[in-house]
């Protein structure tokens, strides 16, 4: 039997972005009627969808070789695994939050605080730092609806803050910033074949993430404006400059998407003409 | 402020049947854009949708007065609450199951058994009775997809057994039979106003459940066949018999739905004519 | 060509309840791929779905003979048509509402109030009673999202008040209570064939509405408890009392659904046994 | 192994009505994730969903014992099976239709007519009766879109005629009236256990169909109006008449739904009071 | 508080194309559970979804700074706002249409024409030009279903003409050609910060629209075919020509998508080889 | 009337990929409420959706000029048409399969084999090669559910094999490999205008398919590593090499997607820097 890389994919909130990222990286992930065991386009890789919560632990015990999951669940699990790439996708913050009108009085309840969360370990660590008696209630999604009758305080993930606001909850403390991470089991990194396979996947995934942040711009410049145009191009990489048949230069550079409009307006003012922008698929730094 | 009965409704698998049951009992439960706090038609009742898992505990600590949840979660939680009616709805069995080809060898794995379940307490109780070293993995739904790589044994709920079969799992032990229960907090039963309110709800809910099992049949019988017709009617309640203007009798009884066709064929043979069957809405025993 | 009754049905919020009501009344209304001209089961009736807004006016000019629409749109249109039945369905109130923090200062804006509504006529009538300069903005649904930047005040329909609360709006005045009405064109009521047809439809629709409010209860009573049982039955109609073969009485009455549980508990205490409740389909008063 | 009745259910247009009919008859049919093998509530019956087209043939060769399918497919297949009940559900007519502007010229095309249909056998039989050369094209649904380029004439099922009209097709001939039939295999009728089982099912199904056509009305009448009231009740069954405690009569009859409003108006005029109408579930004639 | 550009986005038919256009322009618009106030990726811009009908007026009174809406509603409103870019998206024509069989007789009805439309101002302007008495009926969508009983003539938007044809309506006059426009409030254009912000957005949006019409083709040419190849390239921009290492030239040009296949076939015939076509993201002219 | 190319598009499994392919080729296909006659962006082409089964035959008799359909249905129909491009899309294999436990005993059934398939002609051809008596049952989709009671053997299309496995069927023989083909009617290829039009469509479609298999990579190389870098580039086409202003070379090549990660790693090791990968839209070989 040929060697296999066992890849754990998160089921839920993170699924869509991870599948898009892998597809862009050349690894197609297709459901085939069996939701949990998708078909993947690389016959040396076997993927399985699992709850993000369980992935750190299952990597630690060697049930899978690598996977994607949130930094939050890695911390919650306490599992010893290697985070080898922060994709920056699905950024969230774990916060402690309480009903607006209770925030002031939390320390004077006169009874143990009722704290609800999906994160037991992180909650206990936080509550111990507060040095206040508490009762812990494990939730299973939708933690924001527990207050006020079913919880005095919650530890919950926040993306835009809209859900907290709609439930009239106020942030009391920020506990942990999280996003989707590419994670490997230590045993897998010790296996030469798997380590190479994981590194190849990491390289392509990173190239895709880098390409999303950039756009390729091409322009023509007459000779005496070349220096002032090139001076405007972001410094990270030398732009590619070629002489044109008939005089002048073609200049090409992968510039950051952020601020593109401003960059273009400056380049035109400096003498660049025929400006074209194209999407990049992968950028290998 | 008038007194309020705080009713906890289960979010998930049990929701549909419980809402139908309450609606039939005269308590309409309508979502109003806010999934978790439905409008109910009785202004003395305030309902909230919560995970079935959390309901027993939240009743015990007094956050709600009564509710519907599964017997399984009551047992798992260990919460001291009163089951005041078994609705018989959504019947399931908690079983221990293992991959077909592993069943024989579970005791000779040569390493701790990896057991996955949503039910930690019930799993630990069961595993201790097996007297075998094990590692527990808490799951969050879809436990049946953990084996074989992510679990050797699971404790999972089974309704028809189809899901187990599709995942090639075999039942190793039946742990607990469960169904949806109407449950009350002890504190609520000690409050006279709440106790009466809960009992009224229990009475109507039970009358609806009873009505579902029965059908009202009416028929005409000439005088000399009355005895043989009445003899065929199930014994639990005396049928209602009235003389008809012009002779003969009208006989009416609420008979069980099960076996209705057979009952009707026998009644016709015994001399009943003009047989009509109608649905009942509530039967107060 | 045989005579036809042209029935206008409201497209939108009121559709579902009106179609259910007509179906229960024996007039099936089935879409057939053409959303606006449904098939109806009575070949003497031709139905068309129209915006509730347009129905009063189209009845007035004789384009249709009768229909269902809201009292709000009848008032808004000022059309001279006859409301012949208040179904009580889809009850709403037209209110004036303003952003919470603006309510106090509405009269000291120092500029004309910007008022947004789907109801131009009713808004102008209300604003003139306020004697304050205003600018009117006609909306087309979702009026509640106009404040604060696009309106200072709105006139909008309110069912549960939840939408206002979520948009942090406060009711400033209640303008009009509305519900779905069965309406007829005056010309149609002057045509004998149409008048009879409309009256027949009104009778059955009313019988269905009445049946929804009641439930048929049947019980057995021994002779000496008959009076005390009958005394408990709501007074509007004499209950039907029949002697049973073998002694005792069967008592039957159509009682209001509201308070059914309490009624049943009293009846049992008074001596009624074998209580059955069944749904009614139509009650002709 | 206990004996089993193998029931074939039609997949497609007829499914919904057949499942509703069986459920009303006390045989619940529930999908369980496996679309083609539903769970049924009678353990002596095994159901399978199959294309209506294949059911007649599969009954003939003994793969199933009984089933529901259209009369059209029974005729098309030429299979020797017994139609034991016409449910009247999903009534359709098989018609021959041609494009409006071609109808006149069909016989002067100067080339073979191109005829498209799902029904090969019935089409060939019809075309031979026309004595015109033709080319047959078997279609697989949506036959109405073949003309004009892909067919000159089609044989297709028509329910309301709307689809033909939208495709500007005109009916040239009506070939066959069809509806959903309860059908049995001859071999099954020769097996005593299966024959009894099939007959029981047929009896209950027929009782449900009969109950849908009727409504139970109850009314009170004073003694001297009894005759004129009873005279108005449809003649098929004697109404049930009982003396009331305190004088007068209670009259009850299962009358046809069609014309109910008119019947009620006449009964009231004749002296009936307290008229109630209730739905029936089954009527055993 | 930092300055904010208040952007009004059309809710409805135009939404999808406008959101796609903005996303391609680097301004992500994401719903966040609150349908009317989407999150946008530029913290200096605040967006709100509003009915296209209301946008011109709300820009005029200064409730928003710029937005997207149809030319039709700008004309209907009579609002004084600046159309600064015609995106060409969602092209429609406002037409007057009447039932096929009524077209001839519209002027001889012998009574006022009943005209229905969502566009009151444009309808009145048109009807006055016809110099015929009329009655105006404001519609709220689905105007095409009003004729024949509820309107003799309609003024409605037409995209493909299919809806008119299906309702057997004939175009009587074309009133106005419309498409989605980028519009600014005059007050905003007078504010220097806002004017710059709006111009930057206009520039990028226009670059995206231009890029959609073009494709970047690259090819190799041997020296003596260079002139004939270049002669075939559309004249608007000089192509970029570079010498290849080892002889020959690389030629690159952004050519129109329309007619691409024909262009390519000619280029190959003229001596171009290794032809590649790539999508462009933005073209700054 | 200008000439028209009549294009038949397959309705069903193949639809999505074919429409995407045509859109990418510059021929937009838009539904417009009429599912069967989409709007296409080339006014010289008229498209119609038809069942893939019927397309070969309808091309043969001249009802359409060209189209897309599966190789399987071309073979099944026996129609004389020209396959002018194998798109490779939707690859499937027609196999003969039997229930796992019946495979061995198929030749010893003691009665004719019951064979079910949508493909009558291919089934008969195969069964005759087996020289065994059989009964043929034409199916209409979902053939895999016929065994075991309704078929002993099926001929069915297989994509991943998952469906067979779930129904516990084993492949007995592979009959035909199929995929979506671009097909032309012979008569159309004999018409000069149509032949040119078809060839142009084939060229662009093929260029899109080729572009999907490749990715454009660009990199910079210093002079003395040029040869070793170029040597690594797949041989099919010479890469485009240009001198950079300031020394070194820019190298560009359209390399296969398959194995991209490995290629990139080797190129970097050989001295390539600033590697960018971009998608191609069309590659004209």
Report the sheet-strand fraction of chain A. Answer: 25-35%
Major interchain interface with per-chain residue totals: A-F, 27 and 26 residues
Q: What does the largest sheet of chain A look like? A: 5 strands, mixed
The share of residues in helices of chain A is 25-40%
Mean pLDDT of chain A: 92
**DSSP E strands of chain A, number:** 17
End-to-end CA span of chain A: 36 Å
Structural class of the secondary structure composition of chain A?
Answer: alpha/beta
What is the string of helix and strand elements of chain A? EHEEEHEHEEEHEEHEEHHEHEEHEE
Low-confidence stretches of chain A: none
Assembly category? homohexamer
Please tag this protein with its features.
homohexamer; 285 residues; alpha/beta; 5-stranded mixed sheet; 9 helices; flat
